[in-house]
Amino acid sequence: MKKIIDPGVKKKTVNVRDNIVYSVQKDLDGNPVELKMSIMLQNGNAEMRAAAGVDDPGEDHSRKPALLWVPGGGWRGDDKNLMLGEVTEFARAGYVVASIYYRSSYQAKFPAQLIDVKTAIRFLRAHADKYEIDPDRIGVFGRSAGGHLATFAALNTDGYDTEEWGDQSSKVQACCNMFGPTDVTALMVSEKAKLDDPKFRWHKLEDTHGGMLVGGDPETMIERSAAATPINFVNKGTCPMLILHGDNDPLVPIELSSDHLYEKLCEEGLEDQTEYYVLKHAGHGSREFFQDSVKEIMLDFFDRTLKA
Q1: Which of 13, 85, 143, 243 is placed for a possible disulfide with 276 were both Cys, Cβ 3.0 to 4.6 Å?
Q2: Distance of CA 108 to CAs 65, 168, 226, Å?
Q3: Is 134 within 8 Å of 215 (Cβ atoms)?
Q4: How confident is the model at residue 58, as a pLDDT?
Q5: Could you give the angle at which helices 84-92 and 292-302 cross, rounded to 10 degrees?
Q6: DSSP code of 301?
Q7: Global pTM?
Q8: What is the pLDDT of residue 51?
Q9: Which residue, among 303, 29, 251, has the nearest Cα to 143 in the 3D structure?
Q10: Nearest Cα to 145, choosing from 175, 179, 111, 94?
C-alpha cells in the first residue's frame, strides 16, 4: 500500500541534551561530585544539522523562557530524567526545560541542595546564548522535595550563592511548588510523635527524610530544621508562585505544609501573586497531578508570569 500525505510543519522538533555538568561540588567525605543536568528545547532538527549541515526551514532560534525542574525523592536523590516525559509539554509550549541532579542528603546536608539549585540557575543564565534562553525569564518547578527546593529558590534570598558562574544572578521570576514539604519543622514534629508506633516507617528521627536532610545531633535536629524551612524566609522579593497539593497526601499532609506556606505568603502581602490549588482526592504525587487539566493550569501560570 502506498499513500501520499501532507502532514505539514506546525509541530516543532524537541531535542534533549543530556549529562551537562553544571557544577562540581564535594560530598561529606570531601570527594568531588559532578552535578549534571538535562536540557530539553525546541531548537531545530538536530539530527538533520548533524547529517546534512542544514536545518528545517523556518525554525525559530529566538530566546525562550526557561524552566528548571527539580526532582523529588525525599532529598535522597532521584533520576533527573525520570519525569522528563511528564514535562515534555512545557518544551512543546516553547520553554527551555532543564532537569538536574543535586547533592542527595547522603552526600551533603542542607543547604547544599539549595546551593546546587541556585548554581544550576546561574549556569542557565551563563549559557543563555548556547541554549537559546532569555536570561530575564527563568522559572523553577518541582515535586515533593523538589517542590521544597523550588520554593526556597523562589524566595530569591541571598546567601546561598557560590563562585561558580558567580557573575550571574540566581533569582527566578516564577515558581510552581507541587506538594513540597515547605514546613520541615512541622513535618518533623509530627513524625517524631509517631516514632514509637511499630507500624510507622521510621523509628529514629535522624532516619526520616527531614532528619537526613538536616543531619547532625538528633537532640537539636528539630530546632535546626528551621533553617531548612522555606516558610521562615518568605519576603517581598518572592516571585509569583503556583502551589499544587492534594487533600489526601499521607506523606506531606497539606495542613502541615502548603497551608502554612500560603498563609505566610498572604501575611507578607503576596496573595495577589500567589495561586493555590487543592486537588481533590490526590495523594503524594498521585496521577491527579499529571492530568491535562492540571498541566493547563501550570502552563497558563508560566505563560502569564514568564511570557507576558
Answers
A1: 243
A2: 31, 24, 17
A3: no
A4: 67
A5: 50
A6: H
A7: 0.95
A8: 65
A9: 251
A10: 179
